[in-house]
């Protein structure tokens, strides 16, 4: 074979191998990669700027946001303002999502992808949109994440448009807060160390009052009354630290007041915490005259009441008996029951441990000298 023929054959072989590798890799690539840049997953297409209402329904909560000027507010929560970036991030991420691969069209299989119609127990999240003029912009069911596009930082998500039996794998994922509180700005925390006094009123009468003494411990002003339980009173003050909430409602949702707690701050300032009930829920409201973080809490919460996590609410709802209970004797942490720090050894040692010494002949130990 001549050199020229050999080179031609060689180049033909190289090209054939390269083509075969390309075909194999293309065939094995996720569909999301092959069809990237397809139709937008969002039902409103390229008209995201015209959307003026978003109704969100998950297995844990539902929310409806409407655009008021440049801001979004929760209209089903008395127009409480959304966290500025929450809705913007959602819309931006939806704009980037593209339908990439057809999945099942059988309703019986929708649950496996998490795109079943919203109902009790369903795992899907439904996003329903309306344009500013009130017209429907469609609705999208957001399902489980997929690892089909793990090579892509945006990931992949199963979706289905409401009213359409075709489920899809979409390139990208929505920036969709899963917890209620993440849709809103958290109320600023007021450090418990800034609280100098706690006064509890029930039925319009003061039933408990304690102030910090020179040692930083809570004590009752009237010596004739039971002493204050410093640990439990401090738990009341800690109810203001990091006051994230599980729900927010207009103040009128609190139909009965159980107690008002006035927390005294520096320079005669204070914040009042009202605890009450409505529609089977316990709510908390804030008011008062304060500066710093406490003033911001009062400002943000004006006209609203909040459902706090149980670990926060428990401190605010302690009984008067708890607030006046005798302090339990302190026990050093990490010590076993019965340990006497003055003797240095646990009481009631088993035979063979006279005076707290090790028994003779203990394996791995040096014999007594």
Overview of this protein structure:
- The chain is an alpha+beta fold and 369 residues long.
- Helix content is 21%, strand content 29%.
- It is built from 8 helices and 17 strands.
- The protein has a 9-stranded antiparallel sheet.
- The protein is elongated and about 110 Å long.
- The N and C termini lie far apart (95 Å).
- 27% of the residues are buried.
| Strand percentage | 25-35%
Assembly state (oligomeric): single chain
Distance between the termini: 95 Å
N to C succession of SSEs: HHEEEEHEHEEEEEEEHEEEEHEHH
**Rg computed from alpha carbons, rounded to a whole number of angstroms:** 32 Å
Q: Per the principal axes of the C-alpha atoms, what is the gross shape? A: elongated
The proportion of residues forming helix, as a percent range, comes to 10-25%
The number of distinct β-strands equals 17
Task: Output the number of helix runs.
Answer: 8
Major beta-sheet overview: 9 strands, antiparallel
Category by helix and strand content: alpha+beta
Spatial strand sequence of the major β-sheet? 4-3-2-1-6-7-8-9-5
Kindly report the average pLDDT value.
84
Which consecutive residue ranges, at least 5 long each, have pLDDT under 50?
Answer: 19-36, 355-359, 362-369
List the helices and strands and how they pair.
Layout: H1 3-28, H2 31-34, E1 51-57, E2 62-68, E3 71-74, E4 80-81, H3 84-96, E5 98-102, H4 110-113, E6 125-131, E7 136-146, E8 156-161, E9 167-171, E10 197-202, E11 205-212, E12 218-220, H5 230-237, E13 247-250, E14 256-264, E15 270-278, E16 281-289, H6 292-301, E17 304-307, H7 310-316, H8 320-323
Antiparallel strand pairs: 1-2, 1-6, 2-3, 3-4, 5-9, 6-7, 7-8, 8-9, 10-11, 10-14, 11-12, 13-17, 14-15, 15-16
């Amino acid at each position: 074979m001549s050199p020229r023929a050999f080179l031609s054959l060689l180049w033909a072989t190289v090209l054939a191998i390269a083509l075969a590798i390309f075909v194999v890799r293309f065939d094995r690539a996720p569909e999301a990669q092959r069809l990237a840049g397809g139709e937008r997953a969002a039902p409103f297409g390229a008209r995201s700027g015209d959307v003026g209402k978003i109704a969100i329904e998950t297995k844990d909560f539902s929310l409806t946001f409407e655009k008021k000027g440049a801001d979004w507010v929760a209209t089903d929560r008395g127009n409480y303002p959304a966290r500025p970036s929450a809705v913007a991030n959602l819309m931006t991420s939806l704009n980037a999502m593209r339908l990439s691969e057809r999945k099942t069209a059988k309703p019986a299989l929708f649950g496996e992808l998490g795109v079943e119609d919203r109902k009790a127990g369903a795992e899907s999240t439904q996003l329903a949109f309306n344009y500013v003029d009130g017209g429907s912009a469609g609705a999208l069911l957001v399902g489980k994440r997929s690892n089909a596009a793990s090579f892509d930082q945006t990931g992949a998500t199963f979706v289905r448009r409401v009213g359409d039996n075709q489920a899809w794998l979409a390139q990208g994922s929505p920036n969709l807060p899963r917890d209620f509180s993440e849709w809103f700005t958290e109320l600023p925390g007021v450090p418990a160390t800034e609280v100098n006094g706690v006064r509890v009123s029930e039925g319009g009468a003061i039933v408990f009052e304690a102030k910090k003494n020179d040692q930083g411990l809570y004590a009752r002003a009237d010596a004739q009354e039971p002493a204050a339980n410093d640990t439990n009173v401090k738990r009341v003050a800690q109810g203001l630290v990091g006051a994230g909430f599980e729900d927010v409602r207009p103040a009128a949702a609190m139909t009965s007041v159980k107690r008002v707690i006035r927390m005294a701050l520096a320079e005669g300032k204070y914040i009042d915490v009202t605890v009450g009930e409505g529609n089977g829920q316990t709510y908390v409201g804030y008011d008062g005259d304060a500066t710093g973080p406490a003033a911001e809490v009062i400002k943000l919460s004006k006209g609203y009441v909040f459902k706090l996590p149980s670990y926060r609410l428990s401190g605010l709802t302690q009984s008067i008996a708890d607030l006046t209970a005798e302090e339990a004797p302190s026990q050093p942490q990490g010590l076993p029951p019965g340990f006497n720090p003055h003797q240095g050894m646990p009481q009631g040692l088993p035979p063979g441990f006279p005076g707290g010494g090790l028994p003779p002949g203990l394996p791995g130990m040096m014999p007594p000298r």
